[in-house]
Design brief:
heterodimer, A: mainly alpha, 77% helix, 0% strand, B: mainly alpha
Chain lengths: 112, 140
């Protein structure tokens, strides 16, 4: 599974936008969420097809977290209409980057 | 100054988000550790589970308003700070006692020292957001 490093860039951009207006940020996070879901589905299909990452349980746990992180972060951010709301999005994005890096680690150390 | 503001407003919003991430991470980690290899390092994994519970309590308490939630948040942040200081010190002094890492090992260096900074920020924020009427009796 190839995971897009664009996530990291997007997270940085979002952080840089620390005080920017909001609507396109929400649209961007929605789009990112969709991309994440697609990636997760690809991973699930590959796993069903027989590829297994190291520590399957951990991997699946990270997959679940990856899917819910951005939507949850966005909901939480929307209730705060100030720059702190945008900062919440940045936090969610950075957490997502960490999750994706861990997913890639686990996937590349495939047992077989 | 003046009225107490909800702990989940303004910068507190970010604080709750970070706490939520740690609650999630600690819970998941403890769950996997205990489910897959509990006998290897029971103490470390029980500590992980305890840390996870503290993070969950802190997240929920900070995300709610009212004096009770504020008091619970204060206790959770204090326990968390004590935990990271004690476990951090012990894990450096007697590494043998901690064969596997916990969130609080080495003052949370595995997580960029965030576990050390987080409770301090939490306590400062609880104090800052408390308003006038609680300055004398912050625990109330």
């Amino acid at each position: 599974m190839v995971l897009v490093t664009a996530y990291g860039v997007a997270a940085l951009i979002l952080t840089g936008m620390g005080r920017a207006p909001r609507e396109y940020l929400v649209i961007a996070s929605g789009a990112l969420s969709v991309i994440v879901v697609v990636q997760v589905l690809i991973a699930v299909v590959l796993m069903v097809a027989g590829q297994r990452p190291a520590e399957l349980g951990t991997f699946v746990g990270y997959l679940v977290v990856a899917v819910i992180l951005l939507p949850l972060g966005t909901v939480w951010a929307l209730a705060e209409r100030s720059r702190w709301g945008t900062a919440v999005l940045a936090v969610a994005c950075f957490a997502l980057v960490v999750v994706i890096v861990r997913l890639q680690d686990l996937w590349s150390s495939t047992g077989g | 100054v003046g009225e107490a503001r909800p702990t989940y407003s303004g910068p507190g919003r970010v604080l709750v988000a970070v706490y939520a991430v740690f609650a999630l991470a600690a819970t998941a980690r403890a769950g996997v550790q205990i489910a897959t290899r509990f006998t290897e390092a029971p103490l470390a994994y029980l500590l992980s589970a305890f840390a996870a519970v503290v993070y969950i309590v802190a997240t929920v308490a900070l995300a709610r308003s009212g004096p009770l939630a504020r008091r619970i948040a204060f206790i959770a942040c204090s326990v968390e700070l004590a935990g990271v200081l004690v476990v951090g010190t012990l894990s450096l002094a007697w590494p043998d006692a901690f064969p596997d890492e916990t969130v609080w090992s080495g003052f949370g260096r595995g997580y960029g020292l965030v576990p050390l900074v987080l409770p301090i920020l939490g306590l400062l924020w609880l104090r800052r957001s408390a308003g006038n009427e609680r300055v004398g009796h912050r625990l109330g």
